[in-house]
Amino acid sequence: MNKLLYLIIIFGFIFSFETSYCSESNDKEAIKSLLFRRPRIFPPIGKQNLKIILNWRRAYGEYTLEYDKNLIKYKHSKGLELKTSYQKLIEGWNKIINDGDLVMIYKMCKEEKIPFDIVFVAMTESHWNKNAFSLCGAKGYWQFITDTGEKYGLVCPNEDYRTDPVKSTQAAIDLLKDNYNLTYLWDRKYNLNSKKITNNDRWLWALWSYNRSPGIVSKYYFKLKGKTKDFAFCSDNVENSNYVNKIFGIREVLKDYVFEHDRNKKIPANTNFRKLLKEYKNKWYIVTLPERVKMLEEIKKQYVTKKKGDKDYVEMQNITNKILYIKQILSSINYKDKDELL
User: Which of 55, 121, 233, 285 is the most exposed place for a label (fewest CB within 10 A)?
Assistant: First the structure.
């Protein structure tokens, strides 16, 4: 295991750096605080947890072909848009910024004295899509089910505020605070020494309880004596304690995206190849997979130099690999226009 990579993911970027990702100072501050400063909640330690985090990072970053194939097969069978999880995640990320909701959550977290890192719960749950709806009835940005929504004032006889960004965020903050405080009740229930359980571990248990019944999570809390190092070994399905590691995997994906997005803005569009490439990088997440292939093929036609020493050579290789990746996904569902794409 790469020791440097381990330290980056576990401890985050301790030192921040300037990013030109947004023009508004509040957005800049929120993004830096969230992605490029020391996090308030660290991922669970241990190589197995790190392995799962990296697996989610690859899956959500379009590096795991089988994951995307299975996802697109499901979407195709339901008549849904042919977009990867990575596209939906980045679409939500840009929406949460452009709508001013990231700053809103940042301010609310500061007022409530709760880690700003909880944003990644919403990004994991819904990709910040108010219309997200699960089979169990979870709805909205923070995916509250009806019963929990009623408890936290989101679902009333004549109103449903689960799609309201401010009200649902406040409810999520209250729920996560309650989950955090539950760990102290579990200490007393199971006769555990509270002083031996870190603040960070309590937040990790709170995150897990957000996704799964606290009653079930409490049994693992007792089994592991409040420690989180063995989270990865408590997973009987992908939505078990893997959920917590998934949150941190998504954090890494967003960090990678923001860094690359910032770098792309500095590249001059002084050739047709670069002009089309910049246009693609600004909209790839809002178009379908077939449309992405067509855009990438058009960019490829504009590449003239074809020398390894050329500055755009690496970009051209990435384009070629991405075209192949998407075509393999589309071929797996027998997409009707695949013959035009192959």
Answer: 233
| Cα dist from 325 to 59, 125, 307, whole Å | 13, 26, 23
Size of the chain, expressed as the number of residues it contains: 342
Give the ranges where the chain is alpha helix by DSSP (H).
3-11, 25-35, 47-60, 65-77, 85-98, 101-112, 119-125, 146-151, 165-189, 199-211, 214-223, 242-265, 272-283, 289-301, 313-332, 338-341
SS3 of residue 225 by DSSP: coil
Phi, psi of 78, rounded to the nearest 5 degrees? -100, 0
Give backbone dihedrals phi and psi of 114, rounded to 5 degrees, phi first: -125, 145
pTM attached to this predicted model: 0.88
R_g of the chain computed on alpha carbons: 21
CA distance 165 to 142: 9
Per residue in 158-213, pLDDT (tens digit) is 999 999 999 999 999 999 999 999 999 999 999 999 999 999 999 999 999 999 88
**What is the reported pLDDT for 306?**
64
In order of their start, the domains of the chain are 3-263 (1.10.530.10), 267-341 (no CATH)
Residue 130, SS3 per DSSP = coil
Burial of 211 (C-beta count, 10 Å sphere; 0-12/13-18/19+): buried
In angstroms, the Cα distances linking 64 to 67, 70, 241 are 6, 10, 21
Cα separations in angstroms, 88 against 78, 91, 94, 285, 287: 16, 5, 10, 7, 10
Read off φ and ψ for residue 160, nearest 5 degrees: -135, 105
Q: Measure CA of the first residue to CA of the last residue in the chain; give whole Å.
A: 37
Q: Which of 264, 328, 311 has the alpha carbon at shortest distance from 67? A: 328
User: Count of CB atoms within 10 A of residue 39's CB?
Assistant: 22
Helices (H), 190-288: 199-211, 214-223, 242-265, 272-283
